Amino acid sequence: MSFLPDPAVFAAFTVAAIILTLTPGPDMALFLSRALTQGRGAGFAAMAGANTGLVIHTLLAAFGLSALLAASATAFLVVKMAGAAYLLWLAIHTIRHGSALTLDRKPRGKSSSLASCWATGIGINLLNPKIVLFFVTFLPQFVDAHDPNVRGQLVFLGLYFVVLSLPFTVAMIATAEKFSAALKRSPRVMRIMDWTFAGIIGGFALRIATAASR
């Protein structure tokens, strides 16, 4: 199918997406906190909201980047190079500072409705500038600027990322207490995740930078 990337690229994206899913961030902190304080239903609602935000990010990035490519292949290349620089910075920052997961374990006086948890998930996801930058810089690393189906590939990769992350995030919420406790008990595991994430992201950044210089 025309929107499917090259198998090697698809495999690389899959590995990177899994590592990204397992790396703590605002979305993970939100749905785990809601699961711990208000129950699994609230955690799943917050997760659904975050995933809704990711779908919106995917569509905005895909249509925006494909429009940029249609206007100027050079401009698209500039975006990819800027993305490579950002990903390299992200890799270095992860190694230097590590991942942090701050969970709100205090029960709220009044539990939020599932709709409220869903809306909060969307808000935190859409308003997180790191996610905006990541989608704009990460997805282009896996598409060919000369491919006429670049928009379809960007949409496919973004939606595939959301679907791929579901089994992992569902498992996190289902075992929220044990999962959060395991993260706190195993800082060495988190550092391994940090280095793995940094290695993969840094590798993509260097690959696109060297490819563009040829």
Overview of the molecule:
The chain is mostly helical and 214 residues long. It has one domain. The protein contains 9 helices and no strands. It has helices spanning 7-22, 26-38, 40-71, 73-97, 114-126, 129-138, 150-174, 176-185, 187-212. The longest helix is centred in the first third of the chain and has 32 residues, at 40-71. The chain is globular, with a radius of gyration of 18 Å. The two termini are 29 Å apart.
Write the layout of secondary structure elements.
Layout: H1 7-22, H2 26-38, H3 40-71, H4 73-97, H5 114-126, H6 129-138, H7 150-174, H8 176-185, H9 187-212
Helix pairs in contact: 1-7, 1-9, 2-3, 2-5, 2-7, 3-4, 3-5, 3-6, 3-7, 4-6, 4-9, 7-8
Elements, N to C (H/E):
HHHHHHHHH
Largest sheet: none
User: Helical content, roughly?
Assistant: over 70%
Unreliable stretches (pLDDT < 50, length at least 5) are none
Broad shape: globular
Say how many strands there are: 0
Rg result: 18 Å
Query: CA-to-CA gap between the ends?
Result: 29 Å
Q: Give the mean pLDDT.
A: 79
Tally of distinct domains = 1
**Given the structure, what is the number of helices?**
9
Structural class, from helix and strand content? mainly alpha
Q: What proportion of the residues form beta strands (DSSP E)?
A: under 5%
